[in-house]
Amino acid sequence: MKTAKLLWTIASFYLLVIGFFYMVVLKDTPSNGPERFEYIIQNWSIFNYQWKAELMMTTLLSISSFLFSKYFKNPGFIIIGVGQLFFAMAMPLSIGITPNAPYEFGSIIGKGAHQMVNFGMMISLFGYLILHWKARILSNWLRVSALILATLAFLSFLAGFVNIIESSTAQRAMLLVMFLYIINGYFGIKINETNANNV
Fold first, then answer.
1. Where are the domains of the chain?
2. CA distances (Å), 5 to each of 38, 108, 127, in order?
3. pLDDT digits (tens, 9 = 90+) for 121-132
């Protein structure tokens, strides 16, 4: 239990930091095309760190979710863990291929990675919906806030996955997810053996 709490809390809060950092980085990044690819290559040390940090933290979040599922019957934990695995699988593609590929091939890989991230986040957000719907650890207003944030972000990533909107556009919902990470980090701090029946 202590390991799950620690990994969940660290990953949730650190993903918040990474998300904020990524938003700052993307502010100056060209939106599409060869210019965007060239910008990423020129600033590879930043993007390399960003994606490796995301890979580490999503893996930690996945591990902690599966560990929590051993202690609690809430199915949200398993769903979150599976979603984070899909998210994590997109990172090695981006890290390994992007700096070593021409634009055309790198663009194809990038689109595939975007879809994997969208799918992973969509699954994870559905897991967060179930988790916070069933759990009674947080105060009512925090729980309702988590449900609203998870629902809005889920719909955005779902729209990106089924191509109603561009995958890169869907990922702007990460701002909602960042607020959700704050609540989830606090959830990790609050959860313990004494309130296990409320999960």
1. 2-198
2. 40, 38, 17
3. 899 999 999 999
